[in-house]
Write a structure and sequence with these properties.
With 524 residues, this protein is α/β, with parallel strands linked by helices. Among the domains are: 167 residues; 180 residues, no CATH class. It is built from 9 helices and 33 strands. The longest helix has 22 residues.
């Protein structure tokens, strides 16, 4: 470990990245923390029931009154008394029997992680500070949902394989970038949105395979370098004075809306919902032993704990899918467009005279600042009302489908298939209502779990096989409430639990969730 605290090391890494982008750095990481958290969800905190210390929780979804504990306070080897099997009649009787052993864990760190501070759900990562849901990354600060070998990333979220980046949200393989969103395979981007396969681009929107561009206008390389150097100094000085920069999502409506081909906004892909229904019915048979209806019929049940997707009408007469998380919540009704409209709007550019100073440039940006709400790249097929589609197929009402297929009503389905009603599943399959989980199969109502199969109602567990209502434990089989009871008894009790679950679903109720089993009363 380098000399100094985690915070000091991450701050030094931030200053270096800031200097790479702006030429020099005269501001500290924490000076910008409020600005850095504007476009993505910050972790919440509660007091530990064991020590009263502050515990970081990546999501504010756990029921009020539930007991919370920090990961390092958990005794994973603790033995529990067997349950009185004869008293178990349904889900509520199980919860009543194990209530004293239910703790929700925060400050969770997994794998080979080292050198972290104020984090939750940090896996195989190093030098992480004030962040949550960080995987296989290093030197991150004020970040969320960063993974896949990202490094030197600050104030950013929802990004993978990115390096030397400040305040980017929604990115893959982006290098040396500032205030750049929904972009992939690009480098040296500055205040850009939906710019893919680009390099050396500033203050531009909805571009593909462009370089040496400012305000959607391609420039001669020498002229671009000259202007970039001047603008970078002005931008740095603005940030140092104000401890923030302009927000592209708060630019005013243009005085005159541009005109584009009206037919462009009317194009709409026709999808086949039957393929997704078939996948959902198969998943229900795997988990519940029977079908519970179509995905549309189960919308209320599946949408309970996710960020909902919806369709809107664009200002140019088309329709587009959107959501209320990340930067989407801040995009004005006059500026959100669909991908087809964005292609036309990308042809509009500023004049060179409007780029002579930062002030003039920002004042002119409303002419071109339109935001494609939907994103489709790579191999895509049969994706309906899905906001982000990245090499995915057969999705319905998903916010982010990345290398996913056969899924519906999910916030983030990443490298997963046959997943429904999940907030964030990674490398998982045949799952319903599983959140912030990795490598699950055949699971229902799981939270913060990894490498588990055929399990339900479990939190912060690893390597479970056929388990229910287990909290903060590892490597169990046929267990309820952290106690292994054998296959025969487990199968009998699982039947009672599934009958209870299915009865609620068929009556139009969502029933208990993994987030509220810590509530001792009857289901609400």
């Amino acid at each position: 470990m380098s000399p100094g605290s985690v915070k000091e090391n991450v701050d030094a890494a931030f200053r270096n990245t800031f200097s790479i982008i702006f030429g020099e750095c005269n501001v500290a990481l924490d000076d910008l923390q409020d600005y850095f958290w504007e476009n993505h969800p910050r972790a919440t905190t509660r007091r530990s029931s064991a020590s009263d210390k502050e515990v970081v929780l990546s999501r504010p979804t756990y029921c009020e009154g539930a007991k919370v504990v920090s990961q390092e306070e958990i005794d994973f080897s603790k033995k529990f008394e067997p349950l009185d099997i004869n008293e178990i009649k349904d889900i509520d009787s199980i919860i009543a029997a194990i209530h004293e052993r239910i703790y929700y864990a925060g400050n969770k760190v997994f794998g080979t992680s080292e050198d972290y501070e104020e984090v939750d759900n940090c896996t195989n990562s190093f030098y992480a500070y004030d962040s949550h849901d960080i995987t296989n990354s290093k030197y991150v600060g004020h970040c969320s949902y960063v993974g896949d070998e990202s490094e030197y990333v600050f104030g950013s979220s929802w990004c993978t394989r990115s390096k030397h980046a400040i305040r980017i949200v929604g990115a893959d393989m982006v290098t040396r970038a500032f205030e750049t969103h929904l972009s992939a395979g690009s480098s040296d981007l500055f205040f850009c949105y939906n710019c893919n396969g680009c390099s050396n681009v500033m203050f531009s929107f909805n571009q593909k395979a462009k370089r040496n561009m400012i305000g959607n206008l391609e420039l001669e390389k020498g002229r671009y370098i000259e202007l970039r150097k001047k603008l970078a100094v002005e931008c740095r000085e603005y940030i140092e004075r104000n401890k923030r920069f302009y927000s592209m999502f708060k630019l005013p409506k243009p005085e005159i809306m541009p005109k584009i081909n009206a037919a462009t906004g009317q194009r709409k892909e026709i999808g086949d919902l039957k393929k997704i229904d078939d996948a959902f019915r198969t998943t229900c048979r795997v988990i519940f032993g029977s079908e519970i209806g179509s995905v549309k019929e189960c919308e209320h049940f599946l949408s309970e704990k996710i960020s909902r997707q919806r369709s809107i009408e664009t200002p140019f007469g088309g329709t587009a899918p959107t959501t209320d998380i990340f930067f989407y919540k801040d995009i004005g009704a006059h500026a959100g467009v669909n991908a087809f409209e964005a292609e036309e709007l990308a042809k509009i550019h500023l004049d060179a005279k409007e780029m002579q100073s930062l002030e003039k440039l920002v004042a002119s940006l409303p002419k071109i600042a339109f935001f494609s709400l939907d994103f489709k790249e790579g191999s895509t097929l049969n994706n309906m009302d899905t906001v982000i589609v990245y090499n995915s197929a057969n999705t319905y009402r998903v916010v982010d489908a990345t290398f996913a297929k056969d899924c519906a009503y999910c916030t983030m389905a990443l490298h997963s298939e046959h997943v429904f009603g999940c907030y964030r599943t990674v490398h998982s399959k045949f799952c319903i209502k599983c959140h912030d989980c990795f490598y699950l199969s055949g699971c229902f109502e799981m939270d913060g779990c990894s490498n588990c199969t055929n399990s339900m109602f479990c939190h912060n567990c690893e390597n479970l096989d056929n388990c229910m209502f287990c909290f903060n434990t590892k490597s169990k089989r046929y267990a309820i409430g952290n106690v292994e009871i054998g296959r025969e008894m487990y199968v009998r009790i699982k039947k009672l639990v599934l009958e209870d679950v299915l009865k609620g679903i068929r009556c139009g109720k969502t029933g208990r969730s993994i987030y509220d089993v810590g509530y001792a009363g009857k289901r609400r």
